[in-house]
Amino acid sequence: MSNESMMCDLETGVCGANEEEAMQEINLNHVEKRITIYYATDPICSHCWALEPVLHRFIEEYGHYFTLQIKMGGLLANWNGFSDGANGIQKPSDVAEHWKEVGEHSRMPIDGSLWHDNPILSSYPPSRVFKVIQSTHPGKEHDFLRRAREAVFAFNRNIGEDDVLRDIVNQLGLNGKEVVEAAAQQSAQELLEEDFESVASLGVRGFPSIIIVNEENHGMKIVGARSLETYVQALQQVLGGDLKPKQITSLEQKINEGHLLFSREMEVMYNIEKTDVESYVKSELAEHTYRVGYILNEMYVEHI
Q: Helix and strand tally (H, E) in the chain?
């Protein structure tokens, strides 16, 4: 046998002469750049609801590169003196038409008729519930925010009301009565105001805003609901290197997470056309394990 050093190549599976140097200096103290993404949002922000399909795909594929911190922004304290001239909003009923436009453009269903007969008086109550859950049951706040948005946008429920909030929290397996009562305390408002201060320090002036920063607090700010490519490019620029997306979770696993999946979300997540969603669902999910529904002519699936 030859005196040459022999090895089996891990990548090719071929065994033969080793062409690498006999001794090589290595450094195993490789440190990945740590990235933080701040998501400034509000439970009743319609453009944040419109962003859900893209944001979920972004987190699904690239979430291993960053820590996500959701910050409440305080969109509506109350209607005293509130004005959004850019969107023609001076009173609660004005919101209905704006929401309708956002829903039609994004294809994330928005009813919005509650603004005529049972308007939300403030976005602070659901925001405080979010903060209480975040502080007492870390991780559950993400589920709460999603279910709260489904409730208000798709099902036209007033998430400023305690009974609606209790019901949503109960759906998470938590004690809705206790959480909503805790959210009414001054301590919950103080938690919320900490978010307001953080959002202000990040230079946020509208929602949704995504701020991507590295350990040196240098980074990128993306305002408004943008394309997936925009967020990927921003992350790549802040990270300073190529990105390797993770494999996307199967549809079966996604619906087992407990919330609805709308057609637009499945289209973005799995790169399929609207016309192919129904057949894709049938091919991916076992019969009698899911239910199909429609809201404002938009299909959704949920686990049963």
A: 12, 9
